[in-house]
């Protein structure tokens, strides 16, 4: 993972107000995030936690009440930076009476791509998302999973450096879900940065390098998935070619050798991301105002 920052927010805040200017809801409260080049970053939280607001602020579709957001080192409000971004919303806004080829050609035109480049890229993406046999059908006839696939293709038509995915596995069957996760990992191999939101926590755990968990607009947890799901209070030992016996438990290494086995790994067992997520949400409910603090601040 590169140390080059692709996304950065500094005390990013969004407050929604009513017609008279009175405070209605704080959708996002002083969010500090840094997402690096080549990283798959997961943004998690229950409905109303501020995920979609964060995405809209990064895309320049909303303006912050306070704080700053930067993408590629440019202010998020700068529209030109969106040429380097691909976005798949939870519900794709696609024209139902166009087919797959026409859809990608239309979005390619928005980026002023030459006709030959549009055709080549559209053909490659249609094949990549597995819609070659259905490319002449209008999108009205597509299932939700098929619309999700063509939606991803349109998000990649401009060969973006940053790909933002909102519920990318929504509507996909288990095979389609596995395909989507493999594709997200492939995008990282290509050097792209991926920011994804999902309610399917097992999907996030499978592909994300780091995650941030939001609740009621506050950042509750931030870190590497592998570290966050570790149980620091327990030790796990794995061995092969050996059966568990009382003698084995008494002295691990000696008994592994005595019984003809080999110790393969020793470390902290992990919980699931789903269990961690639910635990943090419950703690947040029990402790209003709880916020994530960097280790340096928490130690003060």
Automatic annotation (TrEMBL):
Domain of life: Bacteria
Origin species: Urbifossiella limnaea
EC number: 3.6.3.-
Protein's UniProt keywords contain Transport: yes
An MF annotation (GO) of this entry: ATP hydrolysis activity
SMART domains to which the protein is assigned, alphabetical: AAA
Domain ABC transporter residues, every copy: 7-241
Keyword list, A-Z: ATP-binding, Hydrolase, Nucleotide-binding, Transport
Top enzyme category: hydrolase
PANTHER family: ABC TRANSPORTER ATP-BINDING PROTEIN ALBC-RELATED
Gene3D superfamilies in the cross-refs: P-loop containing nucleotide triphosphate hydrolases
The name this protein goes by in its record: Fluoroquinolones export ATP-binding protein
InterPro entries linked to this entry: AAA+_ATPase (IPR003593), ABC_transporter-like_ATP-bd (IPR003439), ABC_transporter-like_CS (IPR017871), ABC_Transporter_VariousFunc (IPR051782), P-loop_NTPase (IPR027417)
């Amino acid at each position: 993972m590169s140390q080059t920052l692709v996304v950065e927010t500094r005390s990013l805040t969004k407050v929604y107000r009513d017609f008279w200017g009175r405070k209605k809801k704080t959708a996002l409260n002083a969010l500090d995030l840094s997402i690096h080049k080549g990283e798959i970053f997961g943004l998690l939280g229950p409905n109303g936690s501020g995920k979609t607001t964060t995405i809209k602020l990064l895309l320049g579709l909303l303006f912050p009440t306070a704080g700053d957001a930067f993408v590629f080192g440019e202010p998020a409000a700068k529209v030109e930076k969106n040429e380097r971004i691909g976005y798949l919303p939870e519900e794709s806004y696609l024209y139902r009476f166009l087919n797959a080829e026409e859809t990608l050609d239309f979005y390619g035109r928005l980026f002023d791509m030459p006709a030959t480049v549009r055709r080549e890229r559209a053909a490659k993406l249609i094949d990549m998302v597995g819609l070659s046999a259905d490319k002449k059908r209008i999108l009205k006839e597509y299932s939700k999973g098929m619309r999700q696939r063509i939606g991803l293709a349109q998000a990649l038509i401009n060969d973006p450096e940053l790909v933002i995915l909102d519920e990318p596995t929504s509507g996909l069957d288990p095979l389609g879900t596995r395909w989507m996760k493999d594709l997200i990992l492939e995008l990282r191999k290509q050097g792209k940065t991926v920011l994804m939101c999902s309610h399917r926590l097992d999907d996030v755990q499978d592909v994300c390098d780091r995650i941030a968990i939001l609740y009621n607009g506050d950042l509750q947890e931030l870190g590497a998935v592998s570290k966050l799901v570790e149980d620091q209070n327990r030790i796990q030992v794995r061995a092969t070619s050996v059966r568990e016996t009382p003698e084995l438990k008494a002295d691990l290494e000696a008994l592994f050798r005595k019984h003809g086995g080999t110790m393969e790994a020793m470390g902290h067992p992990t919980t699931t991301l789903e269990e961690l997520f639910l635990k943090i949400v419950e703690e947040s409910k029990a402790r209003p105002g709880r916020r994530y603090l960097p280790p340096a601040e928490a130690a003060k």
